[in-house]
């Protein structure tokens, strides 16, 4: 008996789990209900308040709905209408322009501000705070201030007059040629400080030894920027780009407060067109279809960027 | 250690339970299909956010509470927010009870969807029995139910400052030609003859020009039919309106589409612009001492054969069909229709509106007397672009009219686009 016991015991133990499995076996096999609750309750909340309305949005995009009566199913009619809707096509063009201009300028100017203000000199904190200040203000309040600046008798026109450029006076927000760009300025004004802070943090993380080495090798300021600073900022760039893309596509408040997409749709973005179609013209089906387009666009841009970022990381 | 774990676990369990409870209560609130509570005061959602109008509403609510039969809690919301939120209020499970809004086609659109309370009981009260026939039909839905209680109305006209006209040596014009002469004279003095105020968030002010030119050229019946979708915006009749408007464009304030009507009012009061086609509501934001100096004249007649029509929008209240405080709502509405309530409102506001109750006294000023006569002489009364059509149609007009003011030569394509945009709303 003892022999067999000795023989059989190792046999039973042979398939015994290796240390990692053994460790897992010692711990609780089932997830404790409390932990499960902590996962499921937020999931339920998210499902109820985010996923479900989003799915409903997709369904509403296939309907014609005035927000009061029951929606009627119209299939892909809303999307077909979009193909022939000049305002939609204009708004898409403006959104792409916004993405490029607003996104590009805020990254470039944010980086420039960070480079200038990264070194600890006397008073630099003040300048950093001043540049960051617009981020703290609500965009609607910011827009009100800029509305006053752009008024026909506003600060900007008075300034132009006083420096002898009176012929450049403009109703900046009421002219279809200037409205989109005039609206972009306050948006940039706010964004640059935010991007600057991200870059300053990135610049602080660069090992000074790299600059020393570059200097020893005879690299000039431009070469140091190109071959040391920019490559070292790659990880920050990823964050900045994601922030910029997301902020560009959701830009709404500043445009709505200043021009409402006007005059006659000249500063219309997809987001403002969606809002006015849904909540002013009360065509919630078409508005939902526009929201789907914005979602697809945002998802597409962010996904393609993330895929590239991951590929580079590998 | 064990103790620590236990207490942490307890804490977590407690937090989890609290979270779940909060979530469940959230679910209950969000899905409650019941009507609003039948207790507490009647909620009165008001879009009258100009300082004087808001203060006047507070006076009315305070006076109602003093009467002792019930209480109302006033909730003032910015006009633009109110307008976009109204469908949400009315369709929500727990809506506010009573709302400031407009009768006619605007109220009827909600009545057709069974969202408005039948106010037949209110209309049987002695105060409303004396209301004019026109007001009766304006407040009756297409299905024949009374859905609205009107309290005040006001008029639109060409407003100016008496002292400025005297200073410039000009007087009120009697005919279209007189009007053009007046514009010429003002322009030669370096004044913008016509202020507009269709910039900022008040592009709708430009619709007044469209309304008036259309009712003067094509008549009120055609105008109402056009706004109801029975005619097209690219019809030759509508084109005539813009041909006439083009004659006037050189006299408009060049910043007309860049500043809101409040700023245009400031220009008018300070004498930078000569006159403005506006409703009396602009006075709610004007300094009280300027009120005595304000006067107006009738929008000039263009074709004497067309019956004289004026824009005189009526304001008042409707109630949600889903209110749980039916009796209290009826009591409040009856009070709002009394001469007393309307006089309190007029006293507290700029006093430029007229009461609907025939027994109520208006502010009695020369301006108001002239305004009353102005409306009484009209053969037809229109409300305003969005009130005679729908709020959904208003953005199409804002777009077309501001574009016309900036690019009058493109009127052909502007009208084609307007018709296309309007058709989408009518067919929705």
Structural notes for this entry:
The complex is a heterodimer of chains A (314) and B (428). Chain A is built from 15 helices and two strands. Chain A has 314 residues and is an all-alpha fold. Chain A has a two-stranded antiparallel ribbon. In chain A, helix 5 (86-117) packs parallel to helix 9 (179-204). The model of chain A is unreliable at 1-14 (pLDDT under 50). Chain B is α/β, with parallel strands linked by helices and 428 residues long. In chain B, helix 2 links the parallel strand 1 and strand 2. In chain B, helix 18 (394-406) packs antiparallel against helix 19 (411-427). Chain B is globular and about 65 Å long. Mean pLDDT of chain B is 88; it is low at 1-6 and 11-34. Classes of the chains: A mainly alpha (314), B alpha/beta (428). Chain A binds chain B through residues 34, 37-38, 41, 44-45, 48, 64, 66-69, 147, 151-152, 171, 173-176, 260, 262-265, 276, 279-283, and chain B through 9, 12-13, 16, 19-20, 23, 26-27, 84, 87-88, 90-91, 110, 113, 115, 199-201, 203, 254-255, 257-259, 263, 391-392, 394-396, 398-399, 402-403, 406, 424-425, 428. Chain B: This is Extracellular solute-binding protein. Chain B: Pfam families: SBP_bac_1. Chain B: It comes from Streptomyces liliiviolaceus. Chain B: InterPro entries: Bact_solute-bd_prot1, SBP, TAT_signal, TAT_signal_bac_arc.
| Total DSSP E strands of chain B | 12
Range of helix content of chain B: 40-55%
Number of helices of chain B: 19
Count of individual helical segments of chain A: 15
The main sheet of chain A orders its strands as: 1-2
**Biggest pleated-sheet summary of chain B:** 6 strands, mixed
- Strand content of chain B is 5-15%
Parts with pLDDT < 50 across at least 5 consecutive residues of chain B: 1-6, 11-34
Mean pLDDT of chain A: 85
Overall helicity of chain A: over 70%
SSE sequence of chain A, one letter per element: HHHEEHHHHHHHHHHHH
* Structural class based on helices, strands and sheet pairing of chain A: mainly alpha
Give the largest interface pair and sizes. Answer: A-B, 31 and 40 residues
Structural class determined from secondary elements of chain B: alpha/beta
Q: Please outline the major beta sheet of chain A.
A: 2 strands, antiparallel
């Amino acid at each position: 008996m003892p022999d067999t016991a000795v023989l059989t015991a190792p046999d039973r133990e042979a398939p015994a789990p290796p240390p990692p499995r053994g460790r897992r076996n010692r711990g609780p096999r089932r997830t404790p209900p409390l932990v499960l609750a902590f996962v499921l309750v937020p999931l339920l909340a998210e499902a109820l308040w985010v996923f479900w309305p989003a799915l409903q949005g997709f369904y509403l995009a296939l309907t014609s709905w005035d927000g009061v009566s029951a929606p009627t199913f119209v299939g892909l009619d809303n999307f077909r209408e979009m193909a022939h809707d000049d305002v939609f096509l204009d708004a898409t063009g403006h959104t792409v322009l916004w993405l490029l201009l607003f996104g590009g300028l805020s990254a470039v100017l944010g980086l420039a501000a960070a480079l200038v203000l990264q070194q600890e000199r006397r008073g630099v904190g003040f300048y950093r705070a001043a540049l960051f200040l617009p981020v703290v203000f609500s965009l609607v309040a910011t827009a009100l201030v800029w509305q006053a600046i752009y008024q026909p008798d506003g600060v900007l026109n008075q300034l132009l007059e006083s420096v002898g450029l009176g012929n450049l006076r403009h109703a900046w927000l009421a002219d279809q040629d200037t409205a989109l760009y005039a609206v972009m300025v306050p948006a940039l004004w706010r964004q640059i400080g935010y991007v600057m802070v991200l870059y300053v943090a990135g610049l602080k993380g660069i090992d000074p030894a790299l600059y020393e080495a570059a200097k020893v090798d005879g690299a000039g300021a431009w070469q140091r920027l190109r071959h040391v600073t920019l490559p070292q900022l790659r990880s920050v760039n990823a964050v900045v780009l994601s922030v910029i893309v997301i902020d560009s596509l959701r830009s709404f408040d500043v445009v709505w407060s200043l021009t409402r997409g006007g005059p006659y749709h000249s500063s219309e973005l997809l987001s403002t067109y969606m809002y006015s179609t849904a909540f002013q013209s009360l065509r919630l089906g078409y508005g939902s279809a526009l929201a789907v387009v914005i979602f697809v666009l945002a998802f597409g841009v962010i996904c393609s960027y993330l895929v590239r970022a991951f590929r580079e990381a590998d | 250690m064990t103790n620590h774990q236990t207490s942490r676990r307890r804490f977590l369990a407690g937090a989890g339970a609290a979270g779940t409870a909060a979530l469940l209560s959230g679910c209950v609130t969000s899905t409650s299909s019941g009507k609003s509570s039948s207790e507490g005061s009647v909620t009165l959602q008001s879009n009258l956010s100009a300082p004087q109008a808001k203060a006047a509403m507070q006076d009315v609510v305070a006076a109602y509470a003093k009467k002792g039969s019930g209480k109302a809690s006033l909730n003032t919301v910015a006009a633009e927010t109110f307008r976009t939120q109204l469908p949400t209020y009315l369709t929500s499970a727990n809506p506010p009870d009573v709302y400031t809004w407009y009768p006619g086609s605007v109220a009827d659109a909600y009545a057709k969807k069974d969202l408005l309370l039948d106010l037949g009981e209110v209309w049987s009260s002695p105060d409303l029995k004396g209301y004019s026939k026109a007001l009766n039909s304006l407040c009756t839905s297409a299905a024949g139910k009374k859905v609205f209680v009107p309290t005040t109305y006001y008029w639109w006209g060409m407003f100016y400052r008496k002292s400025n006209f005297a200073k410039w040596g000009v007087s009120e014009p009697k005919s279209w030609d007189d009007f053009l002469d007046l514009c010429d004279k003002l322009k030669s003095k370096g004044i913008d003859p016509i202020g507009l105020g269709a910039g900022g968030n008040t592009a709708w002010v430009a619709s007044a020009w469209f309304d008036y030119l259309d009712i003067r050229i094509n008549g009120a019946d055609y105008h109402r039919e056009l706004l109801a979708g029975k005619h097209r915006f690219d019809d030759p009749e509508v084109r005539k309106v813009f041909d006439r408007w083009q004659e006037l464009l050189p006299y408009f304030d060049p910043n007309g589409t860049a500043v809101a009507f409040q700023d245009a009012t400031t220009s008018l009061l300070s004498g930078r612009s000569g006159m403005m086609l506006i409703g009396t509501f602009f006075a709610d934001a004007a300094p009280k001492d300027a009120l005595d100096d304000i006067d107006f004249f009738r929008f000039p007649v263009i074709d004497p054969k067309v019956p004289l029509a004026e824009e005189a929008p009526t304001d008042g209240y409707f109630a949600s069909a889903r209110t749980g405080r039916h009796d209290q709502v009826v009591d409040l509405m009856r009070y709002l229709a009394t001469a007393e309530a309307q006089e309190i409102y007029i006293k507290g506001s700029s006093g430029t509106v007229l009461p609907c109750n025939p027994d109520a006294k208006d502010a009695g000023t020369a301006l108001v007397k002239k305004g009353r006569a102005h409306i009484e002489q009209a053969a037809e009364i229109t409300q305003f672009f969005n009130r005679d059509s729908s709020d959904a149609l208003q953005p199409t007009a804002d777009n077309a009219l501001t574009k016309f003011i900036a690019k009058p030569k493109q009127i052909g394509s502007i009208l084609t686009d307007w018709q296309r945009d309007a058709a989408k709303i009518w067919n929705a």
